[in-house]
Amino acid sequence: MTVTLITGANKGIGYETAKQLLEVGHVVYIGARDAERGKMAAATLGARFVQLDVTDDASVSSALATIGAAEGVLDVLVHNAGVLGLGAIDGPTALRVFDTNAVGIVRVTEAALPLLRKSLNPTVVTVSSSAGSFWAVNNPDRPEFHLPTALYSASKAAATMLTVQYAKSQPGIKFNAVEPGTTATDMTADFGIGRSPEESARIVVRLATLDTDGPTGTFQDEAGELRW
What we know:
44% of the residues lie in helices and 16% in strands. By secondary structure, the chain is an alpha/beta fold. It has a single domain (2-225), classed as Rossmann fold, CATH 3.40.50.720. Strand 1, helix 1 (12-23) and strand 2 (26-32) form a beta-alpha-beta unit. The longest helix is centred in the middle third of the chain and has 26 residues, at 91-116. The termini are far apart.
């Protein structure tokens, strides 16, 4: 039995990742800030629900304590919760975007480490973005070159760096970041672009189901490792 927690999993890529991991036999906990939506998503999929707001220390601690009491272990953690932060670039918006997209990773990871260390194959996947890649945003041939997403891009660069640093400091746990591809979700509705969340979730699932000898400290898309 593989126990998995996915943050921000009541919709979009997180929801489809939960669905696909359930299909391969994982026990999946859907973490969602909105309890009503999270419970509905979990009930629809046959998953389990924990209220989890990645910007709130007490919420994070409570969610991991719930999983620990019920399962005693956490095998897979998927950092999926995120915000785009379009509009005005100012201090409050920057704090909100970084608190969710980067600091939230630290909160949840630190709370989850004791349970991950009990796993025989602990794995952490961060849904990052090549919008936070120096290589991509400076390449006119890449779609990221044209995205007006300064705060989102900067926070995702931080998310990818956190992945690398955790991989170095926690050698017994696999940490990998993923670019899931441009996906049609609530976050991208303003742009009117993207493929289905189901398709994008496949790369997240691939990294969430690595063998014990799988890679760590990488940033990947569906074609393999990415420059960043």
